[in-house]
Amino acid sequence: MLRVVVMVSGGGTNLQAVLDALRDGKITNAEVVGVISNKKDAYALTRAADAGIPAVCVSPKDYAERAQFDEALLAAADSFSPDLVVLAGFLVILPAALISRYRNRMINIHPSLIPSFCGKGFYGLRVHEEVLARGCKVTGATVHFVDEGCDSGPILLQKAVEVKRGDTPETLQRRVMEEAEWQLLPQAIDRIANGRVTFEAGHAYAEP
User: What is the mean pLDDT of the chain?
Assistant: First the structure.
C-alpha cells in the first residue's frame, strides 16, 4: 500500500479529487496518510479532518529562521513515513533536503502544459491570465516529478484543455481544474502505486 502525504497551501480541491478517487476505486493500492499545510487557515486542513486524515500546519511564520522552518517541514513529512509526497498547490520554496530525500518520490500538479507558462511566479490565476493574454487556443495541466528547479522535473502526465472565446482567468482556471487537474493527479498516483511508472534517460513514463 503506497503511503501518500499531500502538501497544500489553500482550499485543497486537488486533495479532494484524490480522496474522491480513492473512495471511488479510481486509485488503488494507495492511501493518504497525512496532509501538511503552511497556512493555519487552509481549508485543506478541514478536508483532511473531515476525512479522518492526520493533518499538521508547519508555517514559516512560527520560526525565527528559514533553516528552522526547513527542518520542521522535513520532519513533518518524515513523520508520516510516506512513499510518495504530492504537492497540490503548495506555495512554498522547498528545502533542498526535502527534495533530495524524496527524489523521484515527489510529484507536483501545475495548471499549464509545461514548459509553457511555468517557472518562478507562475501559479494560481497568473497562469491563466498569461494564457489568455497570449491568445492561446489550448492550455492544460501537467503532473511532474519535483527536482531542484521550478517546474523543471520529469513530466509524468499532461492533458490539454480548450481555451474558449470569452474565457476569463476564473472560468479558464475552473475548466483546467475540472477537465485536467482533478483527473491527472489521481491517475498519476494510481500509476505510481501500481508500479506503472518508469524512468529512462531523465524522462518519466506512465504506462496505461
Answer: 97
Q: Compute φ and ψ for 39, nearest 5 degrees.
A: -130, 130
Model confidence pTM above 0.85: yes
Alpha-carbon distances, residue 5 vs 45, 79, 80, 127 (angstroms) = 13, 10, 7, 25
The mean per-residue pLDDT over the stretch 78-93 comes to: 96
Instruction: Report the alpha-carbon distance of residue 164 to residue 161 in Å, rounded.
Output: 9
101-116 in b/e burial notation, b at 16+ Cβ within 10 A? ebeeebbbbbbbbbeb
Query: Which residue among the candidates 110, 128, 144, 203 is catalytic per the annotation?
Result: 110
Catalytic site includes residue 203? no
- pLDDT interval class at 36 (50, 70, 90): very high
Q: How far is CA 141 from the centre of its chain?
A: 11
Q: What is the pLDDT of residue 55?
A: 97
